[in-house]
Amino acid sequence: MKAENGKLIAIVRVRGKVNLNYNIEETMQRLNLKAVNNCSLIRLTDSYKGMINRCQNHVAYGEIDEATLSKMLARHAPDANAKEVMEGKLDSIKEGMPIRLHPPRRGYRKIKQSFNQGGQLGYMGGEINKLIGRMI
After folding, report:
1. How far apart are CA 136 and CA 133, in angstroms?
2. What is the pLDDT along the chain (136 residues), one digit of tens a residue?
3. pTM score, whole prediction
């Protein structure tokens, strides 16, 4: 994982529950990713890094930028301010978690390979903004 501690990370569940290990499903529940196409926003810490590493073959994640965050919040949490959320005041959107998104327009590329291999699993870096933009 290349993301730095303290950054705001968007995690999108890409794969479903069929034949999923109990430990991974429990980790997904703790990340508020209960269904496919759910998105959760977290401030990255060491404990969240461990949780993401456990379920990285079922999610796509990366650093979200303010423009994408403001589009997502305008649609799903209109009373929240993207600038405040980027500064660390996540309390205004906690009750709205997880954010349910549509399936991406033009679909996922591949959900059985990691991002480095041409798929859409694991750490995507800034490319997560394009994926979320297609899902809003």
Report:
1. 5
2. 566 777 889 999 999 999 999 999 999 999 999 999 999 998 899 999 999 999 999 999 999 999 999 998 888 877 778 888 888 776 666 655 789 999 999 888 777 778 877 788 899 999 999 999 999 9
3. 0.87
Q: Which domain holds residue 97?
A: 8-135
CB 42 within 8 A of CB 31: yes
Does 2 fall in a domain? no
Is there a contact between 123 and 61 (Cβ–Cβ < 8 Å)? Answer: yes
Nearest in space to 63 (alpha carbons), one of 136, 134, 135, 1: 1
CATH number of the domain that residue 104 is part of: 3.30.1390.20
In a domain, 54, yes or no: yes
What's the structural domain count of the chain?
Answer: 1
Single-letter amino acid code for the residue at 45: T
